[in-house]
Amino acid sequence: MQPSRQIQAWLLLLPALCLLVAFTHYPVIKTIARSFFGFGVRWQDAASLDNYRYLLEDEVLMQVLYNSFLYAAITVPVSIVLAIAMALWVNGKLQFKGVLRTAYFTPTVLPMISVANIWLFFYSPEIGLLNKILAWVGHSGYNWLGDPAISLYSLMAMTIWKEAGFFMIFYLAALQTIDTNLYHAAAIENANKWTIFRRITFPLLMPTTLFVLVNALLNAFKLVDHLFILTKGGPNNASNLLLYYIFENAFSFFDTAYASALTVLLLLILVALALLQFGIIEKRVHYR
Questions:
Q1: Given Cys at both, which of 145, 179, 223, 259 links 249, Cβ 3.0 to 4.6 Å?
Q2: What is the pLDDT of residues 233-282, one digit of tens each?
Q3: Is residue 94 part of a domain?
Q4: Which domain holds residue 231?
Q5: d(CA 226, CA 114)
Q6: b/e sequence 131-158, b meaning 16+ C-beta within 10 Å
Q7: Residue 34, pLDDT above cutoff 70
Q8: Is the pLDDT of residue 283 over 70?
Q9: Contact (CB, 8 A) for 246 and 24
Q10: Residue 7 lies in a domain
Q11: Residue burial 188-225, b: 16+ Cβ < 10 Å; e: rest
């Protein structure tokens, strides 16, 4: 490539690179640097590892990490399984399947705050829809968001309801690209539906599954909006998640140094998950 062409190429890339550096690379470097200075609300001139030592002593953080990983471990696979099931159903020969597709996808287009307020109406102890339904069968109902034993699972149910329809769209698009001759060949061999799904459909959906898995895990670790409306991490941190805990330390407790250390921890977790997905799982997604 001629030097003038190289300069032209870099000039075309320059606006995007400036935005990437300004809003991604610089904040990451600034956050890492900030995590070594100051502990609590005090500012220190000398760099130290006090914030990272406190990570190991913070009992609330241990609870938050447990909540975050449990939240991801349940919402991600359940959302994916439901998305595949819904995509298979609406991809079949059904009447009004366009209506079904729209119904499944509708929760996705709703704003996060609106979704949280809708589910707040469902979960309210006295006037909530779920407890009203339980009252019809003689049950006193539950304090869905105020009981430490079920508050996190209540958040999970809302997340699965919102995300399964979004992931369904990707699986539906992938199903429509599969060569129908494969299904005709399987029918000639008298393969049952489960065998067809296990041997043909699911293996060919694996690239889409990897894409959905990456997005689902990112969404699981960046949930903040719903917690503002529903639980604010309570009761007693039973539903607190890592990104919301970072927000609390930064903007409620004004402990920006410790919040920076927590952000570095979140980045390390996301990097580890990315390496796991692209280093191990990606090698197994292509059908041979």
A1: 259
A2: 888 899 999 999 999 998 888 888 889 999 999 999 988 888 887 777 66
A3: yes
A4: 58-284
A5: 9
A6: beeeeeeeeeebbbbeeeebbbebbbbb
A7: yes
A8: no
A9: no
A10: no
A11: eeebeeeebeeebbebbbbebbbebbbebbebbbebee
Residues 96, 68: Cα–Cα separation, whole Å: 39
pLDDT(1) > 50: yes
The CATH number for 86's domain is 1.10.3720.10
pLDDT tens by residue, 171-185: 999 998 888 888 888
**What pLDDT does 256 receive?**
85
- Flag whether 178 is in a domain: yes
pTM over 0.85: yes
Distance CA 38, CA 90 (A): 55
Give CA separation, 167 vs 83, 116, 210, in Å.
Answer: 6, 19, 11
What's the number of domains the chain is made of? 1
- Cβ-in-10-Å burial (0-12, 13-18, 19+) of 40 comes to middle
